[in-house]
């Protein structure tokens, strides 16, 4: 689950209307009760951001000494073609993962059908990929995608298609991974959409029925507009998750895979630079750039939302 | 039953989708019970010869039970710590008044907007500096604190009526006492939802364990699977057995705690 996505959630609720009297002893207790958390988040999260930004202007020796190199890491970021490729892949991944949204809405809408039985069974089945360990998911799909013995190619052969080695082929690997990503997210998104659908008042549909609006018309005129806040939330989350793509890339494109070079994402590249090659200053610069990109994309999404999201 | 008859197209579409969700798991289980020769036969063998040796191999050739223990300790440690620290702070943020409260709260929440990669290098250095690489404390420490959990619990506390604690206050109980004996019991649904989300995240977490615990004995299952995959590149029956064993506990837990997990997720979408 993405952290930045939750930030979207956070904005809405500042400043509670507390109606209690101010008491002096509250001060001490208040500080004491937040102290462990503030300390932990400060040491492990807030201060590290400052440090990372500093590191992005340094270069590290083998012994872990950092020397100031100014903007050199950032210059290198621009010249290394691996970065441009990883960035492109990351955008493709983030963008294509939006394709899962219509599927999730369809699942949620169908599960919300009045009088439908077996809803909880369906929900459990759609949710299995969400709760399964990504490391296990990666293994299962690596096997399913196997060029010679994989189930995917066997099923394709039944309809006369000769499949390839999906994740060992530079032209297909990225899209094969996107498909797995969507597969793991449909259940999660559908749960959010189901909650959104339940909050739509049923009298709207009744009124529409009386006015003679059919099922399809009701869906496009009532359901979709009123679901738009959920759609917005899920799309921000999908893009951020896409930008954070790591587990599947790391596990499905192992060393020796011919598609590995061409299919790296920003985060997988960050991981190998920082923790496999020890180029921590350079990797910190990558992280800073990723933060800026995430920020810009989120701001754009918030700007554009005003045109299509209806808050009831 | 009348409506059931009319709904068959809905069932048809949902069933096709459900088959697409379940097929990979079916294939995983089926393969884990095959011999290597059966697994690499085309067309596929649909009735396996129940090769339980695949599971034994995972137990024999990897420190699976050790890694299972590591995962349980890591997940329990992170989850209990988050529940305690987050709800403690969340109560203070929701109900107590002290100078700088809202500023501190917003500052903590800013953590949610930053991609995790900005924390990782310094976090690694801290753990290395403490000599905690390849230890359980190193695995657990950063995951004990969560801005998201604090936000979630604060929202929850704010929905609870103020009257209950008002009575305890008038009796002279101090805030910690009220938190512990009045509010926390009322917050059970919120704690459960956060707990289930944290367990799920922690059990499946891969990147942090890969960074700090590179010794197989000290890895959790997620990183252990990655190592298993590195060694048994093409022995698919063994890999499927291992992945099944590693993910089964959390799937069982999900089936038991489904309601809480769904509530937790619906919460993240509604606020």
From TrEMBL, chain B:
It is found in: Cell membrane. The chain crosses the membrane at residues 7-27, 79-96, 103-127, 178-203, 236-256. GO terms for cellular component: plasma membrane. It is a multi-pass membrane protein. Pfam families: BPD_transp_1. Residues 68-257 form the ABC transmembrane type-1 domain. Keywords: Cell membrane, Membrane, Transmembrane, Transmembrane helix, Transport. GO terms for biological process: transmembrane transport. Belongs to the binding-protein-dependent transport system permease family. This is Carbohydrate ABC transporter permease. It comes from Nonomuraea rhodomycinica.
């Amino acid at each position: 689950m993405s952290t930045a996505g939750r930030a979207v959630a956070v904005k809405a609720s500042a400043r509670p209307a507390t109606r209690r009297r101010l008491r002096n002893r509250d001060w001490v207790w208040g500080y004491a009760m937040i102290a462990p958390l503030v300390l932990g988040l400060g040491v492990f999260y807030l201060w590290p951001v400052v440090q990372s930004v500093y590191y992005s202007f340094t270069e590290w020796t083998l012994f872990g000494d950092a020397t100031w190199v100014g903007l050199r890491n950032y210059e290198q970021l621009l010249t290394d073609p691996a970065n441009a490729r990883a960035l492109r892949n990351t955008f493709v991944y983030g963008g294509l993962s939006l394709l899962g949204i219509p599927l999730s809405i369809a699942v949620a809408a169908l599960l919300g059908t009045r009088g439908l039985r077996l809803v909880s069974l369906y929900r459990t089945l759609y949710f299995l990929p969400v709760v399964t360990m990504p490391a296990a998911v990666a293994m299962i799909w690596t096997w399913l995608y196997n060029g010679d013995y994989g189930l995917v190619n066997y099923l394709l052969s039944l309809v006369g298609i000769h499949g390839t080695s999906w994740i060992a082929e530079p032209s297909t690997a990225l899209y094969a991974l996107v498909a797995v990503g969507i597969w793991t997210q449909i259940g999660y998104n559908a749960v959010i959409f189901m909650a959104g659908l339940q909050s739509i008042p049923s009298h709207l549909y009744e009124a529409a029925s009386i006015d003679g609006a059919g099922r399809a018309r009701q869906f496009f005129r009532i359901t979709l507009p009123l679901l738009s806040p959920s759609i917005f939330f899920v799309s921000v989350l999908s893009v951020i998750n896409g930008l954070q793509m790591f587990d599947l890339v790391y596990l499905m494109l192992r060393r020796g895979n011919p598609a590995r070079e061409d299919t790296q994402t920003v985060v997988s590249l960050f991981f190998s630079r920082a923790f496999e090659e020890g180029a921590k200053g350079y990797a910190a610069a990558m992280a800073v750039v990723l933060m800026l990109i995430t920020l810009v994309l989120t701001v754009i999404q918030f700007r554009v939302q005003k045109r299509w999201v209806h808050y009831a | 039953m009348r409506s059931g008859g009319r709904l068959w197209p809905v069932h048809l579409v949902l069933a096709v989708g459900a088959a697409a969700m379940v097929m990979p798991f079916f294939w995983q289980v089926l393969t884990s019970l095959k011999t290597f020769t059966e697994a690499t036969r085309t067309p596929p063998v649909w009735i396996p010869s129940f090769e339980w040796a695949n599971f034994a191999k995972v137990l024999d050739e990897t420190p699976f039970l050790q890694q299972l223990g590591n995962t349980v300790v890591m997940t329990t440690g992170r989850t209990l710590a988050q529940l305690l620290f987050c709800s403690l702070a969340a109560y203070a943020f929701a109900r107590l008044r002290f100078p700088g409260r809202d500023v501190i709260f917003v500052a903590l929440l800013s953590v949610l907007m930053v991609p995790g990669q900005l924390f990782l290098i310094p976090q690694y250095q801290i753990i290395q500096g403490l000599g905690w690489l390849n230890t359980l404390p190193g695995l657990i420490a950063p995951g004990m604190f969560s801005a998201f959990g604090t936000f979630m619990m604060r929202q929850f506390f704010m929905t609870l009526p103020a009257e209950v604690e008002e009575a305890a206050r008038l009796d002279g109980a101090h805030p910690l006492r009220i938190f512990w004996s009045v509010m926390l019991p009322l917050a059970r649904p919120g704690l459960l939802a956060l707990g289930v989300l944290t367990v799920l995240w922690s059990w499946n977490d891969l990147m942090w364990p890969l960074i700090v615990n590179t010794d197989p004995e000290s890895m959790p299952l997620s990183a252990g699977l990655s190592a298993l995959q590195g060694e048994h590149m093409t022995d698919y029956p063994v890999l499927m057995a291992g992945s099944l064993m590693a993910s089964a506990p959390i799937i069982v837990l999900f089936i038991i705690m489904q309601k809480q997990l769904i509530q937790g997720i619906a919460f993240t979408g509604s606020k």
